Amino acid sequence: MATKILMLGAGGAIARHVINYLKDEKNVKLTLFARNTGGLAEQAPNASIIKGDVLHKSDLDNAVKGQEIVYANLAGQIDKMAGEIVKSMEAAGVKRLIFITSLGIYNEIPGKFGQWNERMIGSDLIRYRHAADIIEASSLDYTIIRPSWLTDKNETAYETTQKGEPFVGTEVARKAVAAYIVNIIEHPGKDVKASVGINKPGVYGDKPGFY
Predict the structure, then answer these.
(1) Which residues in the chain come in under a pLDDT of 70?
(2) Nearest of 164, 74, 168 to residue 116 by alpha carbon
(3) Around Cβ 142, how many Cβ atoms within 10 Å?
(4) Is residue 172 exposed (0-12), middle (13-18) or buried (19+ Cβ within 10 Å)?
(5) How crowded is residue 43: how many other Cβ atoms within 10 Å of its Cβ?
(6) Are 33 and 5 in contact (CB under 8 A)?
(7) How many of the other CB atoms lie within 10 Å of CB of 24?
(8) Which SUPFAM superfamilies does the UniProt record give (predicted)?
(9) What pTM value is reported for the model?
(10) What tens digit of pLDDT does each residue of 39-48 get?
(11) Cα distance between residue 60 and residue 31, in whole Å
């Protein structure tokens, strides 16, 4: 039986890499949900495409129903979206959530890099933290992902840290984050009820090299 996966914010850059990894997998049934669905049907001809808004309850409820894994790759009112996703999944009895937030939400970045990150992201960190708090208080089997500063490099190397551990890596490729997400989809028992930092191994410093 194919695993039914709903991707919210499927037009996002990380999501596009996840789609590329999964689009030809016979044991996966993809549903791609986005406000702007342009190009999705061409990228993944076998996927179901839904044009919708996470903050429109009927759009979200209809998409979530019958799914097994929900992967959310969203921006904007991220805390409000997290609340709606939790409510919709709990009502539908869908348990497994993969949700992208931001590094720095737990003040987990030591030293100058932490100070720089806080300055750069600013008040958005509060919204990302609130989203994580909502998900962590839910009954879902969640994995919250906190990626480092993102690059478009064609590489898949990553290392992870758990909540409560210091976060030191200054960058990570979107393709590498996608590789981690696909690994979770293929092994849904991994990193359950976890908040996971993800960064490129060996690239540490006071700020990302591209700044």
Answers:
(1) none
(2) 168
(3) 26
(4) buried
(5) 15
(6) no
(7) 10
(8) NAD(P)-binding Rossmann-fold domains
(9) 0.97
(10) 999 999 999 9
(11) 12
